[in-house]
Amino acid sequence: MSKRSLATILLAVALVPGPQARAQDANAVISAASRAMGVEALRTVEYTATGFDFALGQSGVPGAPWPRFINPRYTRAVDFQTPASRVDRVRMQGEVPPFGGGLQPIQGEQSQTQTIVIGEGTPWVQQLEIWMLPHAFLRTAPTRSPTLRRQDGYSVVSFRGDNGAQVSGWINAQNQVERVETMIDNAVMGDMPFEAIYSDYRNVNGVLFPGRIIQKQGGFPIFDLTVGDVRVNTSVSIQPPQQGGRGGGAGAAGGGAGGGAAGAPPTPSEQIAPGIYLFTGGYAPLAVDMGDHILFIEAGNNEARAQAVIAEAKRLMPGKPVRFVVNTHHHFDHASGLRAFVAEGATILTHEWNRPYLMEILSRPHTLNPDAQQRAGRPLNIQAIQGDRHTITGNGHTIDLYRLADFGHTPGMLIAYLPQHRILYEADSYNPPAPDAAPPATPSPYNLALLANIERLRLQVDRIIATHYPADGRVVTVAELRRMVGRP
């Protein structure tokens, strides 16, 4: 190699900024944006808004956007010094007629309060509800060894989050944070994108604050807010949520996402017929002794629950593998335990409506919080049920799987009917309320659809078992369903 070539290489290496220089560049960008947006003077903010929230993982059709709910009143207070956040909002039915999940239909107005007070042990996904706010991002980035890159005319400042994923803020030429994005773990989608988009900035007493806030998870909006009144540096009081209260901030959309990190509840079991076991104490699957194997109906709403019921079924039916699990539909609270069954070597049975979507999302990597399937790497086998009826037999048991017709919750919904025992197993078409609950003024179309299908199929039903099992453990009958829809 010539002396000139060696000198050229050494000069090029010398011109590449090292980690310290890159951090200095990032901090310079953060400092400029902080001055422009009034970050240093901002202690608290309280703002009102109107808009929509969307129920993650509850789409009416597999792969479609999450269903929408109207937020006619929304207030959020943020204390950047504690740090803490409180959301008070009112939600109303947004899909008319109801379509999808997320506890639809909402009757009238539903009030929610969601509080985060960051302290030791606060889950990272909850902390992100504050750190992804533009001013909070600029406050915390300098404390986390930020890096800088230039892309598409933006200065992109990044730091590593507690879950190992990068948190990146996109800062425009006006020193405004337009977008903050990261990845979080989801029990179904695995490493799932989470982003917040800010626009229509205006000056409020020296602080730039966005007039439009959109949050997305899994590629679709979970919040879309138009900001009204904004007050800065007012006195706010945010108390920690009570034990068992619901956490979450601006992006904590309602609707059954199915968390992989939740602990398993107890797994009491009841033999409701010879060789048929019901697991209560949480989402309530059925396990059926098919002779040389075990078949499950529903998987449980998270991995821990799924693993617990699998273990209990093996204890009750020793020496028999779990070979099949029936998935009633694609919603995340009913799919969040499926990967545990895949890791067990089981085949998923679901309607053909659901198979392409479940094949895609259940195949995604789970590197941020590796689950059993990420570690096992077993083949994903999903068997599609064609048409409106499929019968499974074995060991003296008959299980008829029917697709619910004219069902707005989702078109690929399966119910299971055990004709020898006159038992109907269903998910989300009737979630039994408290035993003393009065029928709603307007019957749920999902309840009406279930009753119509029972009558159309001429099913003789002595007991309805809901995946969302009643807290009092009572036996639910068709007579109860009729009473709740006003047709005793």
Task: Kindly describe this structure.
This protein is α+β, with helices and mostly antiparallel strands. It folds into two domains: 19-232, outer membrane lipoprotein receptor (LolB), chain A (Clam), CATH 2.50.20; 269-484, Metallo-beta-lactamase, Chain A. 21% of the residues lie in helices and 33% in strands. The chain has eleven helices and 25 strands. The strands form four sheets. An eleven-stranded antiparallel sheet has the order 4-3-2-1-13-12-9-8-7-6-5. Residues 9-16 and 244-262 have low confidence and may be disordered.
Short description:
Helices cover 21% and strands 33% of the residues.
Distance between the termini: 94 Å
Strand order of the largest sheet: 4-3-2-1-13-12-9-8-7-6-5
CATH fold-level name of the largest domain: Metallo-beta-lactamase, Chain A
Mean pLDDT comes to: 91
- State the CATH architecture of the largest domain: 4-Layer Sandwich
**Total beta-strand segments:** 25
Count of the separate structural domains: 2
Q: Whole-number radius of gyration?
A: 26 Å
Class by SSE composition: alpha+beta
- Please identify the oligomeric state: single chain
Unreliable stretches, pLDDT < 50, 5 or more residues? Answer: 9-16, 244-262
Largest sheet: 11 strands, antiparallel
Q: Just give the CATH class of the largest domain.
A: Alpha Beta
Separate helix tally: 11
Strand and helix map with partners:
Layout: H1 3-15, H2 19-37, E1 44-54, E2 68-79, E3 84-93, E4 110-117, H3 124-131, H4 134-140, E5 147-151, E6 154-160, E7 166-171, E8 177-186, E9 190-199, E10 202-204, E11 207-209, E12 212-217, E13 220-232, E14 269-273, E15 276-279, E16 286-289, E17 294-297, H5 303-316, E18 322-326, H6 332-335, H7 338-343, E19 347-351, H8 355-361, H9 372-376, E20 382-385, E21 389-394, E22 397-403, E23 414-418, E24 423-426, H10 445-457, E25 463-466, H11 478-484
Parallel strand pairs: 17-18, 18-19, 19-20, 24-25
Antiparallel strand pairs: 1-2, 1-13, 2-3, 3-4, 5-6, 6-7, 7-8, 8-9, 9-12, 10-11, 12-13, 14-15, 15-16, 16-17, 21-22, 22-23, 23-24
